């Protein structure tokens, strides 16, 4: 590392002095980035700006992203996430440095951390190498101020440029960073054009004998009073064969962000969001979260009930898998002699409902498991030609390997439109790869793919629900003295420490039909999370309580 010189040192000391860390505050960078009450976030946001700029310098000036959002959290919270140059989440290897920097107690401590880290990483400071950071925020009231704070952090690395991309969904910024670094069009208008055109193309490829009726065209979307609803309103006029009504749209004065609405609320509570009621019986409904990176669907079951039939991330995954598998089976059928060899995989976590896993395995699919967290799922899905991952909360996507897409493009060019040719199937896969966000889970593009597949299959909401029946499940938390005493293996599905606990869990599980149970330490608090499934609600609750008692006895407070 070259000597950064006085200007670089001065810039870092000045930025750190503007936003000192309050006494007692502690920031921790996780899958969600840094999050806290919006009024306390300035120190972490400024320092995240420094990290983002350093990351760009490290990567030779490639664009890195920084988004101000707290996703599904209450409106008073805010947060910051860094988007890596590939459009994915920031490299995990940089998380410890991000934590240390955010919690540096003094400007001089921050300066020394940056200088040491730059030396360790071979980063040249002082402006010899440029950096660019794309910025975005959601609609939270503290967002504009925190965006300005982030800009000050970015500017503390000499030679860095902050580009404000505007008020965006989180997935839009991920998409922009990925495209910009690939030399592709990367504006918001380009994003809208790509998803609306690929959606139109998929609809044009719907089998001729499968029409559409007025009921199946209607979709009501809960926008969580966030940015996703506003963006959906913008593109509605360009979406053919889809009659969308947006509620909780985020328009000024309509409602409070994530207040009794949004994907997180609907998925956890399994009740109607605000603004939905008896008149919506029989209509297909979808729900985004606050920054539009999660998607769930639901159905109003009865005019007299507030409960809903929920389609979560597991069933969205299953719908996508069926559609993709159908196209691949025809392309690689006997008559076509395996035109497109494809490694097709599904990635889940231990929290995926056991019924969904059984359904997928019965289709003959390769289903693998990772630890909980999108960063683990995404990384594993990248190993396949086509990798599909979703969490039950509705965050997920379908990843198409670049080499596979090239082979697919070559195949479509060779295939004719003659009867029996699998050209349409290949074109459907190409359109899918353009529609679904290749960088991260995206509620808007995911919703459009769901709608295209439902129209392709001519399925009602009930047809979709009937794919399989979820096993009842129960989750509990057990307070413990030290959560690190729990050590798991097999993608968190088995306990290896403390010794003997897994044997006790196994003994409980065999007493229940379709029983399954695992425990894992919380990532943020001294609790152990217990998840149990069984054939009935009562049995799932009983199994969870039995295992929780074992955890409490072995690890609880003395």
UniProtKB/TrEMBL annotation:
Q: What is its EC number?
A: 5.4.2.3
Q: Which cofactor does it need?
A: Mg(2+)
Alpha-D-phosphohexomutase alpha/beta/alpha domain spans which residues?
Answer: 60-93
Pathways involved: Nucleotide-sugar biosynthesis; UDP-N-acetyl-alpha-D-glucosamine biosynthesis; N-acetyl-alpha-D-glucosamine 1-phosphate from alpha-D-glucosamine 6-phosphate (route I): step 2/2
Question: Which InterPro entries does this one have?
Answer: A-D-PHexomutase_a/b/a-I, A-D-PHexomutase_a/b/a-I/II/III, A-D-PHexomutase_C, A-D-PHexomutase_C_sf, A-D-PHexomutase_CS, AMG1_II, AMG1_III, PAGM
Query: Is Metal-binding set as a keyword in this record?
Result: yes
Keyword Metal-binding applies: yes
What is this enzyme's catalytic activity, as reactions? N-acetyl-alpha-D-glucosamine 1-phosphate = N-acetyl-D-glucosamine 6-phosphate
List the PROSITE patterns: PGM_PMM
Q: Which family does it belong to?
A: Belongs to the phosphohexose mutase family.
Describe the function of this protein. Answer: Interconverts GlcNAc-6-P and GlcNAc-1-P.
The name this protein goes by in its record: Phosphoacetylglucosamine mutase
Organism per entry: Triticum aestivum (Wheat)
Q: What is the lineage of its organism?
A: Eukaryota, Viridiplantae, Streptophyta, Embryophyta, Tracheophyta
């Amino acid at each position: 590392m070259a000597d950064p010189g006085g200007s670089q040192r001065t810039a870092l000391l000045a930025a750190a002095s503007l936003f000192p860390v309050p006494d007692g505050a502690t920031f921790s960078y996780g899958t969600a980035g840094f999050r806290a009450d919006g009024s306390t976030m300035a120190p972490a946001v400024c320092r995240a700006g420094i990290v983002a700029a350093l990351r760009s310098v490290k990567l030779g000036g490639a664009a890195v992203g920084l988004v101000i959002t707290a996703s599904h959290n209450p409106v008073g919270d805010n947060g910051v996430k860094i988007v890596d140059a590939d459009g994915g989440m920031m490299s995990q290897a940089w998380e410890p440095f991000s934590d240390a920097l955010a919690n540096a107690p003094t400007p001089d401590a921050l300066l020394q951390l940056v200088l040491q880290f730059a030396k360790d990483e071979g980063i040249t400071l002082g402006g010899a190498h440029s950096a660019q950071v794309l910025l975005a925020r959601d609609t939270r009231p503290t967002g504009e101020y925190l965006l300005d704070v982030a800009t000050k952090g970015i500017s503390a690395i000499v030679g860095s440029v902050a580009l404000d991309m505007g008020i965006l969904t989180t997935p839009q910024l991920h998409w922009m960073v990925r495209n910009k670094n690939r030399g592709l069009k990367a504006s918001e208008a380009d994003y809208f054009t790509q998803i609306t055109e690929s959606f139109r193309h998929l609809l044009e490829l719907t089998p001729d004998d499968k029409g559409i009726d007025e009921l199946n065209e209607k979709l009501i979307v809960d926008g969580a009073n966030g940015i996703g609803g506003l963006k959906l309103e913008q593109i509605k006029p360009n979406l053919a064969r889809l009659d969308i009504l947006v509620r909780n749209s985020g328009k000024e004065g309509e409602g409070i962000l994530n207040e009794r609405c949004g994907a997180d609320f609907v998925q956890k509570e399994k009740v109607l969001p605000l603004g939905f009621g008896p008149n919506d019986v029989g209509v297909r409904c979808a729900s985004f979260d606050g920054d539009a990176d999660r998607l769930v669907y639901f159905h109003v079951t009865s005019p007299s009930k507030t409960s809903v039939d929920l389609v979560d991330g597991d069933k969205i995954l299953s719908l996508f898998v069926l559609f993709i598998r159908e196209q691949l089976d025809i392309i690689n059928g006997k008559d076509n002699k395996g035109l497109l060899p494809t490694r097709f995989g599904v990635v889940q976590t231990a929290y995926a409902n056991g019924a969904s896993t059984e359904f997928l395995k019965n289709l003959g699919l390769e289903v693998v498991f990772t630890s909980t967290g999108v960063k683990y799922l995404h990384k594993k899905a990248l190993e396949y030609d086509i990798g599909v991952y979703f969490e039950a909360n509705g965050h997920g996507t379908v990843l198409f390997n670049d080499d596979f897409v090239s082979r697919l493009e070559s195949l479509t060019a060779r295939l004719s439109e003659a009867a029996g040719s699998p050209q349409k199937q290949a074109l459907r896969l190409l359109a899918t790869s353009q529609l679904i966000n290749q960088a991260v889970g995206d509620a808007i593009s995911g919703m459009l793919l769901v709608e295209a597949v439902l129209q392709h299959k001519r399925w009602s909401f009930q047809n979709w629900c009937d794919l399989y029946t979820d096993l009842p499940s129960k989750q509990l938390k057990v307070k413990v003295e030290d959560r690190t005493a729990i050590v798991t293996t097999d993608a968190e599905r088995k306990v290896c420490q403390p010794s003997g606990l897994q044997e006790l869990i196994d003994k409980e599980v065999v007493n229940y039909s379709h029983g399954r149970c695992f425990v894992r330490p919380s990532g943020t608090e001294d609790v152990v999370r217990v998840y149990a499934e069984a054939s009935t609600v009562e049995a799932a609750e009983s199994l969870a309580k039995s295992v929780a008692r074992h955890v409490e006895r072995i690890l609880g407070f003395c």
